[in-house]
Known about the structure:
The chain is α+β, with helices and mostly antiparallel strands.
Amino acid sequence: MDAITATSRMKLTVEDYRQLPEDGKRYEILEGELAVTPAPGTVHQRVVGRLYSALAEFVRNRQIGELFLAPLDVILSVHTVVQPDLLFVSKERQSVIRADGIYGAPDLVVEVLSPSTAERDRGVKRRLYLRYGVREVWLVDPEARTLEVDSGASVIPLSGEVLVLPESSILDGLALEAREVFEE
Length: 184
């Protein structure tokens, strides 16, 4: 049995992840399994950029923590390394921030759905985020023009002209105008 075959039958770790090439693809390890995603398209990046702008202003004005953009490694366990599109870490959880990534659960992760990632983002990644202590997961669907807020206890779908987050949200008081997020 050669080394490649043996490795493919073992759960991958953070150390294996660090050996992957830097070739423009997004690599993640989900419960020891390698997940490879092609570079995102323009619609995805446009929505990520607009969300980042709106959230960064909100976070900065309230001085409540830090907001980060992908690619940034979030190490949830020795067998799980993810790169959410956006993530927020509150002042209270700043200890998870290190020079080479986030070691532990951010307060909030945002995944902007693409045809190539929607199933994984809605399924295994959402479950992993909540299992490892992410307090809130946002799934943003540019095609449907919706935002789903999942706190583990409930899933709240938001749609319409203004996306107003529930009071229990990590970013309580934030209202996003759908046209500013989704329009091309």
